[in-house]
Each structure stands twice: as C-alpha cells, then as structure tokens.
DNA sequence: ATGAAAGCGCTAACAT
DNA sequence: ATGTTAGCGCTTTCAT
C-alpha cells in the first residue's frame, strides 16, 4: 500500500487472454508475420490498443540476440563535427529500424573502454567509434573477432580489423598550405591538436609535405601542437605570431583551434592581419569578416558512409575490410586570400 | 560452414563451469553482492577474464525490469542548444550508471510518438523530451501514469503530469527588449520561430509586454514568425527592414534565427546598421564585429537539472510535480548597444 | 559462503 | 490458421 500503485505493464499473455487467442498468435500479429486471419488480427489489435500493450524488447532481445541498437562513441557529442556526424548516422539507423546509444569518451581511453563494455553488455549490434588517442586495440579487436560490427570514423585504431572512414587529412592540409603559398606566403604557421591525435599528425604531415613541394623549409618555430582547450594558448600563439621574422599566414588544424584562434586574433587586433585557413568548416565561418577560408570536411557524409558500412556488416556482409578516405574541399571565403609578401 | 565461425559469447554458466562454482556464485561476484570468499572471487574473476565474459544485460533487464538507460528526444540532436543540453544530461546519467538513447523528432509529433514507443519498448527508465510542437498528451500521459519518469525540457506538454524545465522566455525577451529601449530604440523588430512553437510564443509575449511597459505600441509590421529554416526568408526579413519607417533594432527569437539573420545582414550590408539582440547564445557571437549581444540560456544547466529531476523520479521520489524556470542572462557585447534615435 | 530451482516475456521449432 | 513447448541468460527465492 505504499505509493501510487503503478499498473503492471501488460504482456503478450494478457493480450492473448483478452483477445481469446494464444500467446503465439499475438506474437504473430505484433511482428506482422502473417498467416493470421483478418478477424483475429483485428481482435488482437483491439486488445493491444485497449490494454496499451507494448512489446518488451528485453525479452525479444534475449531470445533473438539482436538489440536493434547501435552505439556511438565520440570524444564529445556536443562538438559540432561529431553531433553532425551523429545526426547522419541516426538517419541511416532509422532506416534500418535501429536506435542510437551515444556516449562521450572525453578523449580518455580508459573511459572509452568502460563505454565499450557497457554497450556490448547491452548487446548493441554495432559500434561507430571515433577512438580516443591512445586507445589500445585489445578490447575492440576482441569484439571485432567475436563478430561485433565496428566502424571507426575520423581516426583508426591500428590492430583492429574494422572498416574505417577517414578524411584525407594529408591531402586537405597540403591543399590548404599550397593555397597560401599560391597567394604569396612563405612563412606559414601551423597550429594543431596534441601530437597523440591521429588527425593532428596527418594534417601536420600534409602541411610539411606541401611546404617542401613548394621548395620551402619547414620551420619548427612556426608549428605548435596542443589541445585547443589547453590553458595559456594566448602565450603559445603570441610566441609564434610575434617572433622576429613572423608568419604572414596560418593554418589551424581543427574547428576547435580555428575558434580559439579567432578569439585570440580579435583580442590582439593591433597585429597586422594574417592569412588564415582552417581545417574543418564551422558555423558562421562565412559571416565573419573576413570570412574564413576552410578545408571543409564532410561530417554528415562521413557519418552516412560509416553507418552504411556498419549495417552492411550487421547484415552479415563478409567483404574485405575497407578504409575509405573522404576528400575535403577547399572553400575560398576571403581570409585565405590575403596576399603574402611574394605577391605584395 | 559458412562465414567465419563466431565464437559464442560465454554466459555465466560457462564462467561457473570454468571456475568450478555455481552459476549463482558467478552472479554474486559479477554484481559485487559480497558473501563470497576471497579465493572464490579470485577464481571467478580469473575465469571471467580468461573467457572474456560480459554480462548479458538483456537477461538482467528482463529479470529486474530496469534498463539503466534513459531516452532523449529533441527536434535535432545536432542543434548546438540541444547537443549541449544532451552532454550535460550524459554527465548526470553517467554518475547514475545509466546510458543514453538519443533520437531526433524533426519537430514531427507523429515521429516523436514512434520514438517514444521504441524507447518504452526498450524499457528505458525515463525520458527527457523537448516535445515537438503539436504533441498530443495522450501517449506521454499514459506513460507518466504508468510510472515512467518523464521530464520535459525547453517546452512543456500541457496535460502530462511531468516535471518540466523551461527558460524564463517571457522575462528574457522582455529584458532584451527593455535593453534596446534603454539604448534609445523605439521601433524594434522581432523575428521568431513558428507560432506553434511554445518558446516562440512566450518570447513574443515578453517582447510585447516590454514594449507596452515602455509606453510603445506593438506594431505588426515589425513582427515575423517563421521557421528559421524556411525558404524565402531574405524577402521576409527585407520586407520588415526595408519598409517605410523601418526598425532601428531587432531581436531574433532563437539561435537558428540569429544565424540566419547575420547571414542576411552580411549579404545586405549597405543597409544602415541595426541594433541586434539574439535570444540564446551561440558560438562566435563574441568574435563577430560587432559582437552579438544575447540573452543567454543555460542549456547545460537545464540539462543537468532535468537529468537530476529525472533520476530522482527514477529512484521513486513522490514529490509533487515541479516546473522550474531558468532565468536567462543578458550578455552585453556590442550589437545591442548601438544607440537608437532617442539617444542620437 | 554457496547452490538449486523457478521464472522474467518473448520467439523458434514443431505440432495440428 | 492457430497452438504448445522449450529455452534465451540472468536474478530471485529459498535451501543448506
């Protein structure tokens, strides 16, 4: 007699009793298996409606072994790059009748592992993971080997046999760099994420390659790799931009860095303007003055492709592992076209 | 003999057999129930490790009736307002050992209903919902009455007995309007979401109230309500801003509208500058020139509070239904302080 | 401290 | 077209 008595949820037996049929017939109707007479279907549906029956998917999952659910793991689900990607995954999942579990790893491999465990305990049919830097292959490879569908996005985990969808980071960063060179710049700075982060390293490599291809000497004094959320970045940036023989252009290695940089540049507006190309597009890049030239990734496309790969595997496809590179696209908006000394 | 033979996932019986104990003892160890000798614990843990056992939560859920999962339903999980809110919910859920199912309603009440069904079939312990405009109370009230924990955020559903976390939309919009009046503006335009959207109507009411309190006559020619994603908004906006006796200031009713407006203003820069206050903060508002004055909501706080309310209910709390209003905060950045005619 | 048996609500397999 | 039976892997209950 304590609390408001919550009416117990009706089960298929309750519906069966109400409709005067057997349990299995209710199951047939609920799952639209067919081979049930029109009258019976109507009677069962009426009983379902009247009792407010909803199938208990835990029981279904226990029996069938499928959760109709996939798990997403990102560093931070509120990062616009990942939330856009997640949305695209959701649309594909919906078409496959699947739901989405989402969790943020905070870039912590240990926590990431906890999430993988929690997801697999729940029997997710597959995982789409942007792995945290430093993720060991062990657990994931075990899952992959046990037949769990896994697709990596944005970053791979070497040692895990799983499909992977990556941006062409080297090519994109090289294109950004070449673009600045073509606009007359010779001293181009690069600000990227922590060197442990796969994309940061690849993008730095693309930058260096393009410099060399342009006959320019990479200069350590123009490169800084640090988490864009770190403290003291104003000093880090200032140390590069205010040195003797300073850069006349710069590249930021991801959207967090672009935004951090724009904030810095606004706070230090007395400095001579620098040409600026960001890796990854971001909202309002086109509205700023000058509008920000970017190498746009295609997060929605990456999400869609990753999800399609995943559901192919969930469906039992045995094709060889794929690694798909999505080419980024240079979007010229103004900030990257300020002429450098060689054109001045 | 088709495909790579996927090793069957080990169960508790397998672990029990390997460790030479009974099924129940394994269960005790896995769930840290205690009353197991140190040696036995060690033996069981070794077997778990060796076999790579993970508890099957579908079976657990079937028996216990709890999924350790909550469901989130938003219009669009990639909207920064909602993705920030979702992230805050996630942090609270994590502390309660719960995972997050997320789905986007696209503002469609029918699809929203499908999602609620899918979530409840899966036995979620609770729902956090930003309901689509036009949501009927029926299904949700049935769930609430059946004891499912529900918390509404951003918008209520009248007729459903559930806790609700809302912004003080009227107060916030009134503050934005009063701020512009105090800066000398007399003709202030308002661009908000569709009139079916709860927040749009409340914010419009706050705007009108503040005008009247300032002794100003609300003027229909200065107000437009439309989805910020609609086509042809440039004409809608132009129709207001380019009329005879045009406004000298404007308010946008949500972050999507703010961004839409900034894009329009940039494309029509020849027009005399208008004072501008946005409802809801957005990234880079501080970096634009002029920086955009906003009435900032607190999506993370709203998410945290909603989640805390939810888990209180999941835990069985029987307190009366609460409706919490979170006061927004005016952040003065420049765009809202351009002096109007009364101060010129 | 440990174990045996029953059963959660559903679907698979097999009748009829 | 419909029904019966067994059992998915776990937790609950009750012994010992």
From TrEMBL, chains A, B:
Residues 10-64 form the HTH lacI-type domain. InterPro entries: HTH_LacI, Lambda_DNA-bd_dom_sf, Peripla_BP/Lac1_sug-bd_dom, Peripla_BP_I. It comes from the Bacteria. The keyword Mitochondrion does not apply. Keywords: DNA-binding, Transcription, Transcription regulation. The keyword DNA-binding applies. GO terms for molecular function: DNA-binding transcription factor activity; transcription cis-regulatory region binding. PROSITE patterns: HTH_LACI_1, HTH_LACI_2. Gene3D superfamilies: 3.40.50.2300, lambda repressor-like DNA-binding domains (1.10.260.40). This is Substrate-binding domain-containing protein. It comes from Agromyces seonyuensis.
């Amino acid at each position: 007699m304590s609390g408001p008595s919550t009416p117990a949820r009706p089960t298929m037996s309750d519906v069966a009793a109400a409709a005067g049929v057997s349990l299995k017939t209710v199951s047939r109707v609920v799952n639209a298996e067919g081979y049930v007479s029109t009258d019976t279907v109507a009677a069962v549906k009426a009983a379902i409606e009247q009792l407010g029956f909803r199938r208990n998917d835990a029981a279904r999952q226990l029996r069938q072994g499928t959760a109709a659910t996939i798990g997403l793991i990102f560093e931070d689900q509120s990062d616009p790059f990942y939330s856009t990607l997640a949305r695209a995954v959701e649309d594909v999942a919906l078409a496959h009748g699947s739901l989405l579990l989402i969790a943020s790893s905070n870039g912590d491999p240990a926590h990431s592992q906890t999430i993988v465990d929690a997801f697999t305990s729940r029997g997710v049919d597959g995982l789409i993971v942007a792995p945290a830097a430093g993720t060991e292959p062990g657990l994931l490879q075990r899952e992959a080997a046990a037949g769990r569908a896994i697709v990596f996005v944005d970053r791979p985990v070497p040692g895990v046999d799983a499909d992977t969808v990556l941006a062409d980071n080297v090519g994109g960063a090289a294109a950004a760099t070449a673009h600045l060179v073509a606009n007359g710049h010779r001293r181009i700075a690069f600000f990227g994420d922590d060197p442990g982060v796969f994309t940061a390293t690849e993008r730095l490599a693309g930058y260096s390659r393009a410099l060399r291809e342009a006959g320019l000497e990479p200069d350590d004094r123009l490169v800084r790799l640090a988490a864009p959320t770190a403290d003291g970045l104003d000093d880090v940036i200032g140390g590069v931009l205010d040195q003797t023989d300073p850069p006349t252009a710069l590249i930021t290695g991801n959207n967090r860095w672009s935004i951090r940089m724009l904030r810095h540049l606004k706070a230090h507006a007395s400095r001579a303007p620098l040409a600026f190309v960001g890796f990854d597009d971001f909202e309002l890049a086109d509205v700023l003055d000058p509008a920000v030239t970017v190498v746009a990734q295609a997060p929605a496309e990456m999400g869609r492709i990753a999800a399609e790969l995943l559901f192919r595997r969930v469906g039992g496809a045995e094709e060889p592992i794929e690694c798909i590179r999505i080419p980024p696209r240079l979007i010229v908006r103004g900030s990257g076209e300020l002429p450098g000394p060689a054109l001045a």
